[in-house]
Structures are given as structure tokens and as C-alpha cells.
Amino acid sequence: MAAVTLLHLKLGDKIIEDVLTPLGSVLFQKGKIVTPKEIEILQAFLITSVEIESNIDLSKTKEDTDEDASQEPSSALVASPLHEEYDKMIIVLRQVFNSVAAGQAMPIMDVRKQLEKMLEHIKSYNLLTFVPRQFLEKDYLLHNSITSALTSYQIAQWTGFPQKDWMQIAFAGLLHDIGNVRIDKAILTKPNTLSTEEKEEMMRHTVLGYQLLKNVSALNEGVKMAALQHHEKVDGTGYPLGIDATKINPYAKIVAIADIFHAMTLNKAYRKAASPYLVLEQIQSDSFGKLDPTYVRTFVEKATQFHNGTVVKLSDERIGEIVFSDRNYPTRPWVSIEGIIVNLIVDRHLHIKEVLR
Q1: Alpha helices in the chain (DSSP H)
Q2: pTM for this structure?
């Protein structure tokens, strides 16, 4: 064991004693591996030293320490079993999309096998904080599909679906946009407004997706309907059929929420990601006439079930910890910053930009 100052703390060091905030909350539990984010949080809370494993040479100069830190592979620092299976899912899904685009049969059992492996780690998935280790904007469709599968699976659990539906709803999230493999990529990535003809072409992905899935016996009807109906709105203003809530499949209602959330919180070639908290507020407003209000209410409540002590970054870049959450305003808790309480219900010009821990 060795107490080291932040000056000597290196990326990859293992913290072996709980680190407390000035208010006495646990900032980091023992066993935490130091990444740039941990150092940023420690600095924000004015922590001067931490206890780490004593395999560090404190006689090193700052220059030596900085050089060692710069050689740490950042991707290895945030590795987790979920990330590892997620990365494998990217490879499998890319093969699936390529096969389908080429007119070949979908290797559905390969997809299910990897999906099951990924979902074994669903308890470690937090939709507000999960970030793919490697994200290329050209792979947006793959990432949106996989994160939608994870989130749809969670929504199915949260909303009380029978366990037999959970995997199929994950499939619905994973394959809801498969029709896009038949759409011109120039249309999908166009940075400005689509022409009428381009918009009509883009909207065809729902029908194309249904046609690609309709004869896959391993998928139930809900999965196929989710591909067809995930852009329908409960007030009947969606597409392709313009049906209302009474005719929209429950799978499609769930996938619609997950798809919107991840479409707005993932980077695209023509638009940067938005704060997940602003997106949650947008989804709340869309529940009036657009999305299923019951599913939305449960989704937002469960996604924002903060514990006191959760460390967040606000839109003005200040870092603090949540000390109180009002269930009527789940995206706008009270945040303590250096002993001062910021009430986000009152300070509407601010919002949570990121959860740090």
C-alpha cells in the first residue's frame, strides 16, 4: 500500500482504499482502476492523495510518470466483459448486414448465440453511461442496433414483460433497422435536409426490413412488426402505415423509445451526440401523442434512478454529486458542487451533461 499524490498517480494504478468526498460519500470504491476520467474527478473534488498498490516507484520524476502514462493503452483501461461481447457483436452484426445486403440467408443462430453472450452481462449495462470502446461514425447503424437491443431488453424487464419475451424484444432492437442495408448510403448519411424523393426512399427501410425478416422462423411476429412499425406514432402520424396506438405492436413501441434515445446520443457523420438527459426530456415530451406514455414513464424513471453520491458533470462543465432526486423531475436532481446545492429544477438553463460515476 502506498499513499500517492495526484502528481504521481498514473493511468492504470489500482486504488485499494475507498476515496471519500468532502461530504463523506464514497467517490471511488477500492479496486477502482485509474483512467483520465478518475483523475478529472479527483481534481474536481480537491482530493490530494489516494492509496494505491505499492508497485509504484515514488522516486520517479513527474516527467517519468507522464511518459509512462502516455504509453498506457486507453482502450484496455475501460475493458469489461460487456464491452468485449459488445465488440464481438459488432463483428457478427456487420457480417449479417453484409450477407443480407448481398441477398444471402441471415445466419440467425450465430446472431442469437452472440446476443445471448452479450446479454449475460446486462446487469453491468447503464444506458446513460455506456460508451462503446471503439466508435467509428461509419458504423453508426451497427452501434444504434446493438445499443437498442440492450436498452429494449431492459425496457422489457422494467415494464413487466414475461421472461420468454425478453430475448425476442432484444432481437427486435437489434434488427429493427435492418432494412437500411437496402437504402442508398448517401441518403442515410446526408447532412442536410432530404428531398421529397430521398425521404420517401429512406422511409422504405421499414417495409424492406419487414420483408427481410418475415420468413425467419426463429423470430416471432413482434420482432418483424418492430421492423415495420418502429416509426409509427401513437397518434397515427407515423409511417409507413399511419396507424395509431391500438394497432402498434408492443415490441415496436419499446423499440421506438430505444431507437430515438440512441439515435440522439450516438455521434453521426453530420451531427454530434446530445446529452442523454436532454434526450430523456425530449422523449418525455414526445410521449404526448408520439410514444407510448406508460412505457416512457417507466423508461425515464428507471434510467434516472440515481443514488445519492452519483458524480455528474453539468452543462457548464462543473462536477458535483447528486444529493436528492425528485421523482416528479427525474432528469433534474439536486447537485452539490463544493458544498453549494444546484437545484436543476430551478436552474433550467443547466442540465446534466454526463455521469462520471
Answers
A1: 36-44, 62-70, 74-77, 81-101, 108-119, 140-158, 163-175, 185-188, 196-203, 205-213, 221-229, 250-265, 276-286, 293-303
A2: 0.80
